[in-house]
TrEMBL record:
This is GLUG domain protein. Residues 87-116 are annotated as: Disordered. Residues 105-116 have a biased composition (Polar residues). It comes from the Archaea.
Amino acid sequence: MRLPQQNTILMTGFILIVLPMGVSSGFAGIAHGQTDAGPIDVDVSDLPGEGTESNPYEISNVSELQAMEDDLDANYSLINDIDASQTARSDDGHGFDPTGGDPSNEGTPSPFTGSFDGNSYTITGLTINRPTESEVGLFGRNSGTVTDITLTEVTVIGDVFVGGLVGYNNGTIRNTTVSGSTDGANLITELIGQNNGNVMTARASG
């Protein structure tokens, strides 16, 4: 019988670890769903779940978070904390691409109309660097429901309607906390750039 090809890792001292090819040791410093250059492309249809209210798409890493932009009507559920620091290196330094919005400010917005349940988890280190774009945030324009999420150490730069969580809100935001820095030409806050919707129990700090 032919044995599987093996990798051998010899560590100084007396520890020898032998793993079959293709099996991860768990020592890798790069999280699943991202590379050293930033998040990788993930098709939203490949996420666990169905995107329905009863069986939402599950998000476990920053690449899956970015995939939300491909289905703005779906329902999403965060299932763990996310380190989004590698967004600083994605899209040629422009960072995370906001979910929904009207980045050219041409009056033809495509809002997020689904739901996002953060389940009280935290996204850390989200970077968006789009100084010429409008409606900039994790969600560029929200007409859906965003709940129970904390964003920390965000760095968000846009033109107008700039917020760490939502650039332009026409929907519902509940139980959210944002801390970090935001910058732009007009209508800028750590939480929401422009609010025309319902916001309940939301906190922000610079």
